[in-house]
Sequence to fold (117 residues):
Amino acid sequence: QVQLVESGGGLVQVGGSLRLSCAASGSGFNIRLMAWYRQAPGKPRDLVARISSSGNIDYADTVKGRFTISRDNAKNTVYLQMNSLKPDDTAVYYCYAFAGWPLSNYWGQGTQVTVSS
Fold:
């Protein structure tokens, strides 16, 4: 089992920055992929960025050039640095991991990011 705990959300003004963290704990990690998703009210949960165990990274077009995903394998932690934030970035951000034995999907509890104009 893998538990994911996010932190770092909050209220920020347009153009500001935030860094989200997601720490994985438990046993039998075998983390193959970690990612950040977000969900705004009334909208589906969408992929923001993902990073594989080999370091391959993908971003949603809407955040390219503004957000950076990274991971610290020693700490089993993934980060999302968000710069030049816009009101459209307002959402609950969820950490995701494809991990464990057998491989399964894991979600964090979510952290609110609000960008005020």
